[in-house]
Design brief:
With 215 residues, the chain is of the alpha+beta class. It is 27% helix and 28% strand. The longest helix has 23 residues. 18% of the residues are buried.
Length: 215
């Protein structure tokens, strides 16, 4: 095992120009099946997570030993190798990262960090998001919009489309009169009768996109 991640006291051995931004003790770590035996996290269960300006460092004491190379184990994940920040939950998060690079194909694995205090989860993941955005900005010259903002725009767009869709307006008027969840209408393409519901734009019989309410 390489000991380049930690110093004699078990703290990270940082690179030139690297600074520790956050640290969280007693974090649990695990990995997806692809990581076992390849990312050297099989023996790692509990340890300290360090967030630097270039990478994530995890260090755990795996056995009692005077030999530092035997006592500690760990891994580091550079932000350049993180392809996705997974769903952030109350006390855990995950990252999908490249752990083996090849000329034609790279191998990826998901690493999970668990049992963090909620305020630390927010601090750590906010920093990772910012770092990934900086990398994308350096590559493309554009900063990606936050996922929450994208989802909000999609929802607003859908609401506008529903309010202006003439078929949906006619369907809503019809259903408000008959007080039913569905109504039988004839498909203008195949002539078959289908159980129509508001918003339906494809015939379930012939699979064609049709207008059930002609202009």
């Amino acid at each position: 095992m390489s000991d380049r991640f930690w110093d004699k006291d078990g703290r990270p051995f940082v690179l030139e120009g690297e600074t520790i931004q956050h640290s969280v003790p007693e974090v649990r770590i695990s990995g997806s099946a692809a990581s076992k035996g390849l990312m050297e996290i099989g023996d790692l269960k509990m340890g300290d997570l360090y967030v630097t300006n270039t990478r994530l460092i995890f260090i755990g004491e795996v056995r009692k030993s005077k030999d530092l190379r035997q006592k500690f184990d760990g891994l580091s994940i550079f932000y350049d190798d993180i392809t996705e920040l997974g769903k952030v939950q109350k006390d855990k998060f995950s990252v999908l990262c490249v752990f083996k690079k090849g000329r034609w194909r790279s191998q990826k694995a998901r690493v999970y960090f668990k049992k963090l205090p909620q305020d630390q989860v927010e601090k750590v993941t906010d920093y990772i998001k910012s770092a990934l955005q900086d990398i994308e900005y350096a590559e493309t010259g554009e900063r990606p919009e936050p996922r929450e903002k994208i989802e909000k725009k999609k929802k607003e767009k859908k609401q506008v489309e529903e309010k202006t869709d003439p078929d949906l307006i006619k369907a809503q008027a019809l259903f408000s009169e008959i007080k039913e969840d569905s109504v039988e209408l004839m498909c203008p393409a195949c002539g078959g009768y289908v159980s129509y519901r508001p918003g339906m734009k494809t015939c379930p019989l012939c699979g064609k996109a049709v207008k059930f309410f002609p202009d």
